[in-house]
Amino acid sequence: MELHLIRHGQTNWNEERRAQGQSDSVLTELGIKQAKALGIRISAVPFDALYCSSSKRTRQTVAHAFPAWKKPVTYLDSLREIKMGKWEGRLYAELESESPESFKHFWHEPHKFDVPGAETFFQLQSRALAAIRDIYSQHAGQLIALVSHGALIKTVLAHIEGRHMAQLWTPPQMHNCAHSIVCVGADDDYRILQYADQPYDQ
Asked: What is this structure's pTM?
């Protein structure tokens, strides 16, 4: 299975530097332009199926990036972003001031991130990989698009690279509408072809 992992376009909360998690934010005008530009770049790819996080920002990204899509879109809660509990909707500047240790963990020591009511990055990674295994079981040998979120996609790619969770945020950055491509085989056999729009040659 060739799996195309796509992050959503810029949102109002991205712009405001708010923690999004599983709460709903909406695409900005720039985010809509990003999604449309992505759609043009991948318009010739003959996808067999389209999967999407059930969040509003990913749904909007699909609407603008796949305007000619005629088949059903499968929306999954399992493809949502990391659950951030009481952090959701809060400005990152406020969180850094109020919870400096947890803020440091999130951005610099993600393997230590553990906030009440939130998922750990390990839990996010397990959820994401389970979702991909289920998709593979239905679409082995096919070409699949999956529209999701930055942290979720980063945890998947970190797993494939064999990176410890401490190195989750290692570049390249998962920018808005970043497009990564992974070959998925049986028995959790993965190979990265493209990472955030750049060819992967490691």
From this structure: 0.96
